[in-house]
Amino acid sequence: MRRGVRRKVCLPMSKSSSIKPPAALEVAALNVYFGQGSERFQAVKDVSFKLEKGDSFGLVGESGSGKSTVLRAISGLIADWDGRISTDGVVVPRHRNKAFYRRMQMVFQDPYASLHPRHTIDGILSEPLKLHGIKDRDAKVLKALDDVGLGKSFRFRYPHQLSGGQRQRVAVARALMLEPEILLLDEPTSALDVSVQAEILNLLNDLRRERNLTFLMVTHDLAVVAHMCQKIAVMNRGEIVEVLSVEQMRKETPKEAYTKELLTASRGYDPDFFSVA
Amino acid sequence: MNDQDTLLSVEDLWVRFPSRRGVVEAVRGISFSVGRERIGIVGESGSGKSMTGRSILRLIRPPGDMSAKEIRFKGDNLLDYSEKQMRSIRGHRISMVMQDPKFSLNPVMTVGAQIEEAYRLHSKASKKEAYRKTIEMLEAVQIRDAERVYKAYPHEVSGGMGQRIMIAMMLIPDPDLLIADEPTSALDVTVQMHVLAILDKLVQERGMGLIFISHDLNLVSSFCDRVLIMYGGRIVETCKADELHNAQHPYTRGLLAALPQVDKPVETLAVLERDEAWRAQESVSAYE
User: How far, CA to CA in Å, does B179 sit from each of B40, B49, B80?
Assistant: First the structure.
């Protein structure tokens, strides 16, 4: 029943689209479910947000808050969802097509798990080009390696010969092979040491500036999100409880108690935490 | 600090692993002492911090090899102990909380049975007494529904609760020293605060010593009394925890600068430039 209704929801986008360009990514009333029948569990409830081109938007929350699920639903990794997802004013099809993946790519949390262990870096980077029938792969792979600060000596190595930071650079390079406009970043540095985290965050910021990319970033680390994003949505139990700018967050003017709690906790141990919260 | 307050002192500890490309030295001649205080060991992956924790309990398995001049615990040199004597130390006098409760709890035993086992192994308590004590301990680590959790299996509890169960299990024999290896890294921030508050209270109430191993500089500087910073198997610097932000060593400074902070926005994060000379430097001894 729900599915039938959903299929009919097509375009028409807001009238203002004739005046200013439509949002790079818009998510409206997104619900995501897991399981079936009486076991069906709603992991994401009525989540809506909008990213203009060049925005960097952060989703924060604790594990189980549904933040990664939102990303996975957008990227087409979860089937059971309803609501509307559109990029540049075009509603994305139920079955994601090639055009969608040329516009949007994802970087995953754990570079130890996201790269195929039996493929060389060359194979990993040229696979998306092959799938999309793009020519001149040689030059593109070399350029991609160069763009993420890895030399061409890395080209024929296997992932196990690389450190965690180098692997995550490869994952970023792979996501950028098709020159997407939007990058979905799912905890891109939480598996890495702080010094390596700094390198990857700097790389991502540089790439965003150079290519005018749009970022949607999921993290549990408020300091990372404050560094990377201008706007932040706090999620709890599948819902967005608060959307605030990074300035608001710094000035400690969040309205929700939950956001305050996260902020206090991000500053380190506080013996008075439980008497305050 | 005088000798009586020193629980543990380690002198010239080495941990080595043979590999195809020669011997890897994971810990290279470190010396430190622990009193009735909270000591933080921080470092990045591969710095040797976890190996340091494990070698105190002589838990380095062959082909790995550890050696030290001495590991003195309350006056006795643990290196002289037989394997059987070590077993009376492990869990009883010195306990260790591992990083991930998913891999540390027995999946086919109920939570209650596991905690009871830990207690009864080291004391002659009756079953009834052990049950009472287990429930009491579960309540001490802020588990509300202790009787239900007692009967539950590890897969039926959340990660945060699993970690608290681990802590309950490690504390029930009333150890003198607790080694906690990244005890809160797998937990959400608010649960993490909860676990830390429990540890903090127990250290203060029982006069326990705590070795807190972590990669999180903010956490260690706010939670511990004293910090050792490890790099390449050596202690490069030691300081009072609340003075960590004034650290002198370029490695520590680099780590601190690489950390994004909510209150201090920067355009670009500082990237740590590693200096080969750091590896060659002598280890700093961290005696109090």
Answer: 10, 11, 21
A215 compared with B156, residue with greater pLDDT:
A215
Alpha helices in B76-188 (DSSP H): 83-89, 101-104, 111-122, 127-140, 146-151, 159-171
Amino acid identity, position A233: A
Neighboring chain B residues of A222 at a CB cutoff of 8 Å: 262
Q: pLDDT tens-digit profile of A191-247? A: 888 888 998 999 999 999 999 999 999 998 888 999 999 999 999 989 999 999 988
Residues 6+ apart with CB under 8 A from B105: B111, B114, B154, B162, B165, B166
- A167 lies within 8 A of chain B by CB: no
pLDDT the model gives residue A125: 95
Cβ atoms of A51 and A57 closer than 8 Å: yes
CATH number of the structural domain B3-93+175-285? 3.40.50.300
pLDDT band (50, 70, 90) for residue A48: very high
C-alpha span between B15 and B35 (Å, rounded): 23
Task: Grade residue A276 by pLDDT with cuts at 50, 70 and 90.
Answer: very low
Q: From CA A61, how far away is CA A17, in angstroms rounded?
A: 32
Cα B5 to Cα B60: distance, rounded to the nearest angstrom: 27
Q: Over the Cα atoms of chain B, what is R_g?
A: 19
B9 bridge partner residues: B33, B72
Q: Give pTM, 2 decimals.
A: 0.83
Q: For residue range A171-189, what is the model confidence (pLDDT) as tens digits?
A: 999 999 999 999 999 999 8
Cα gap A107→A105, rounded to integer Å: 7
Helix (H, G, I), strand (E, B) or coil at B261: coil
Phi, psi of B178 (to 5 degrees): -115, 130
From A205, A223, A246, residue closest to B261, measured CB to CB? A223
In 3D, which of B53, B60, B26 has the Cα closest to residue B39? B53
> How many residues comprise chain B?
288
- Rounded to whole angstroms, the Cα distance separating B216 from B259 reads 10
Predicted ipTM of the assembly: 0.78
Q: Say whether B197 and A274 touch across the interface (CB within 8 A).
A: yes
Domain borders along chain B are 3-93+175-285
Structure tokens of A34?
């897991």
Q: How far does CA B261 lie from the centroid of its chain? A: 26
- Selection from A109, A145, A101, A104 nearest residue A124 by Cα: A145
Q: Closest-CA residue in chain A for B192?
A: A265
What backbone phi and psi angles, to 5 degrees, belong to A50? -140, 135
pLDDT at A221: 87
Instruction: Tell which B residues from 30 to 89 touch A, by Cβ distance under 8 Å.
Output: 44-45
Report CA torsion sign: A62, A261, A31, A16.
Answer: negative
Q: How many helices (H) and strands (E) does chain A have?
A: 11, 10
